[in-house]
Structure formats: structure tokens, C-alpha cells
Amino acid sequence: MNRATVRPRVVMVDGVPMSGLVAEAQDPRAVIVALHGGGTTSTYFDCPGHPQLSLLRLGATLGFTVVALDRPGHGSSAPYPEAVHSPQQRVELAFGAVERILGPRPRGAGLFLMGHSGGCELVLRMAASPLAAGLLGLELGGTGRRYHPAAKEVMRAAAQQDRPPGVRELLWEPMRLYPADIISAITNSSVAPVTNGAWH
């Protein structure tokens, strides 16, 4: 069993509380910054009750510090929609959170960005930012080049409602691929996420 410690963190960035999870390596090879998709939070990368499925624990065991951020508009920053409205605001908040979480701690070779699903949009914007100088690389997963027509309909409704019918099925089917307790543990959120608008 993986014994790496995962700690929740909340830091203030320009008056906005930014939350996430951190698993530190004592002398890291590099830092992985992981950004979750829609309908979940940073817990996506540290499955509650299933440490063997944790990116944070595995990364720290392999010598990487892993920071899983709650994307701007999720977690602690959810009550601050005016502060996360523009893409530039979200990029600055994400980089600011990483800086405050890491502080003077060693970063090894540098930062590597990882995005899942809706987190890919922010990862791409971060990678293109001047704040990403020295970025080691990025990884995008759980996304494609085009939305399926059925997904477009569900996401259109998601931009107008907190939790429209079909979102859970769109994001998490087929359910048989997940341990029974995973979906409810990582998708519980009382606040609707910020919609990032269409991007292609």
C-alpha cells in the first residue's frame, strides 16, 4: 500500500481562496500540477478510500511532488465567480496557487502540467502563458478534438443550470468501470462550476 501523505491546502491568491491537495516528495524530481475536469474537484486525483488509485500518492512515491488544484471556480474559490470569469484570471489564480502552495520548497527539474477533461482548457492556457517559463511539458487526457452531438446538448444545458439531467452519465459512463463508492465521493459538489465557454 502507498504510504505517501496527501494534505489539503487552501491559499489566498489576490483575495480568492484557492484549494487543492498536495503530496510532497522530500527531494522531488519535478512537480506535477494536476487539474481536474468538470463535475469534480481535486479529489479526482486522490480517490477517497482507494489510495491505490491516487495520482498524488503514486507520484510522491516515485519522487515527484504532486499538486492537484481545485480549478478556479471550484472548491474554495467557487463563491467568487467574478474573480474567475476570464481565462486570464483563471491562469493567474492557478499559477498563484501553485506558487503559494510550493513556496520555497524544492521543485526539482520544474513544473509539468496535467489536465483531465475540462481541466485541459486551463492547462493549455497556462502552458501558453508567460508565467509558464521553463515548463517541462504537459499532458492532456479525457478529451477529444470535437464534442459528440449528444455531449453538446448536455453541455449547452449545463451552461444554463446547476446540474442538468445527463451530465453524470455523460462524464462517468459506463459506471461499471468504477468502484461503487468512487462516483459519489469525487463528484459531490454543492456549487455549480464555472463554465469555460466553448473552445475548439
Automatic annotation (TrEMBL):
It holds the Pfam family Abhydrolase_6. Residues 32-173 form the AB hydrolase-1 domain. The keyword Hydrolase applies. One of its GO terms (molecular function) is hydrolase activity. Keywords: Hydrolase. The keyword Membrane does not apply. InterPro entries: AB_hydrolase_1, AB_hydrolase_fold. It comes from the Bacteria. This is Alpha/beta hydrolase family protein. It comes from Mycobacterium kansasii.
